[in-house]
Amino acid sequence: MRATGRPTLAGVAERAGVSLKTASRVLNGEPNVADGTREKVRLAAAALGFRRNAVAADLARGGASRLLGFISGDIANPFYSAVAGGIERVAREHGLHLITTSCEEDPARERLLTEELLERRVRGLVVTPTPAGHDHLAGELAAGTRLVFADRPAAGLAADSVVIDNPGGVRAAVRHLTAHGHRRIAFVGDNPEVWTFRERRAAFAGAMSDAGAPGAERWVRPGAHDAGTARALVTDLLTAPEPPTAILAENNRVTEGALRALRAVPGGDDVALVGFDDFPLADLLGVTVVAYDAAELGRRAADLVVTPGPAASSPRTETVPTRLIPRGTGERRPRA
Amino acid sequence: MRATGRPTLAGVAERAGVSLKTASRVLNGEPNVADGTREKVRLAAAALGFRRNAVAADLARGGASRLLGFISGDIANPFYSAVAGGIERVAREHGLHLITTSCEEDPARERLLTEELLERRVRGLVVTPTPAGHDHLAGELAAGTRLVFADRPAAGLAADSVVIDNPGGVRAAVRHLTAHGHRRIAFVGDNPEVWTFRERRAAFAGAMSDAGAPGAERWVRPGAHDAGTARALVTDLLTAPEPPTAILAENNRVTEGALRALRAVPGGDDVALVGFDDFPLADLLGVTVVAYDAAELGRRAADLVVTPGPAASSPRTETVPTRLIPRGTGERRPRA
DNA sequence: CTGTTAGCGCTTTCAG
DNA sequence: CTGAAAGCGCTAACAG
């Protein structure tokens, strides 16, 4: 008894009065079939409403399925969905489909999802890793699994990755602000567990030092994981004695919070603001940002997945460039 | 010769000195296995780095794979990604993974993707349909495939669907504007092929008529498929003789274009604006909108997919409510 | 040009 | 508690 009621290749073959293999050949568009036979099989397939079972086909071919996996923090987040769009585009060019999943920044869930996708025999995996260690994947990597990390490298695992040019972006922002006369620049960002935060923070300290304003660490405010806390931190900064004249927001959630704080605090309109990450309608709001192409991040990651590196090579790391877009808030000068 | 170098269940069984079936039982956590045997198998599996092949397992079970498909217009679009997030959440509760694809609003591509996902034997499919006919899926539906349309119903096919409360949202917007004294209200929207446009446009005409301002069709401007054309259309409207005192933007791209037009046209600050669809930072921009929960749309669609309707029932249609959020632009009164 | 014989890696009867 | 045999639906040699 068939488990599903669906017509099978065997059914088509029988109805057409040919062998299984011949039916297979026709339905796969292979050559060397008589036109008449071809037609008979086509008719039988149509009459039965036959649809080939790609799962069985993949299995028989013995290889991986035609699927790519993407483990993101949250697929509903526009940043990740832009990355997913980039991955999908490349996947499509290679005849692959994309399975998208969200781990909610939870290491345990990331690991579970990785396991499940691997069991599904995906062709490769793009992961935006949580801060947890990833050494448990070393064996998988050695076995030849195509694994690429996006936006940040995996802790404790030498694997291909593609990241944003964080240092370059932050340096550009700091230079922009100091060129406009700022010395007291605050850096407000996410939690220190987050790799991108640490990268950007380090670049900030370095750039400030280069600008002849060392000791900038004192202007660093971590812990703004959402717009609400960012707003509170910025408000605190601005209402304390000797407030900063400029804010460098480490990501778009912080930028949003900073924007709200600047609106609410008296004199906030005079405080300069540069945000890392562009966002929709930022031009209407006049917000100066450090922008980059998130879809490009996805495209490059997918390229790395589908393009095996030179055997036994060391991990490849690619960098997506950033550019500063002046729109107003970043060009405010400190009050004399 | 094995096609892949991966360890198989047979390999584990051999190494553990048990039969295939026993190894299977252990690795699937089935009961009735002696503790010692269980341990032996576990050890063998670990030593080999065994990972079960979920594809083969699904096939052997004869059913569909544990995958759900989502065919959207563009996964990089925040609206669709919010929907995807909702679908994924429900899918996860049912132990399913989500394959996301983008058809770029192209009917041929939508059809191709549908075929491919069906060949992959997905458990069910959520589709945001292009305007093309979908009668080719009638057989599939009859065969029991779980198919649900989201955001708009499929043309020419009686299938389950979940949509936004378009009439309610538009009526609320019109009532809001007329209550603030507006009579000359323009409705700017997408192309007439788009189902949501037609729904909203019809509701607009009805609501205007109800408000004692019939003949509103003359204030309707279709054809704004992107923010650029929307901006041009709104600029034309405002610079013509007897310009409208209020704009109802049919979707968020139109709202964006209208916003830019209002900024650029002299006196644009006095024109009221209500947009259908909420968007990030709309509050900072002070834009009054008709909002709804896109993730809820996805959740409900996924619910319909995993919950078979009463056999032979007529298609189920669900509606996601909207609500008007006043933020400033919608409360401007016409100049005396 | 067409068919036969083996599997892919796993699950399921149904006997021991 | 354990195993042998039969298949899921399809593809891949290798003959004819």
TrEMBL record, chains A, B:
Keyword field: DNA-binding, Transcription, Transcription regulation
Keyword Lipid metabolism: no
Pfam families tied to this protein: LacI, Peripla_BP_3
Domain HTH lacI-type residue range list: 7-61
Chain residue ranges for the region called Disordered: 308-336
InterPro entries per UniProt: HTH_LacI, LacI/GalR-like_sensor, Lambda_DNA-bd_dom_sf, Peripla_BP_I
PROSITE patterns: HTH_LACI_2
Top-rank lineage group of the source organism: Bacteria
GO molecular function, one term: DNA binding
PANTHER family cross-referenced by the UniProt entry: HTH-TYPE TRANSCRIPTIONAL REGULATOR GALS (PTHR30146:SF109), LACI-RELATED TRANSCRIPTIONAL REPRESSOR (PTHR30146)
Name of protein: LacI family DNA-binding transcriptional regulator
Natural source organism: Myceligenerans crystallogenes
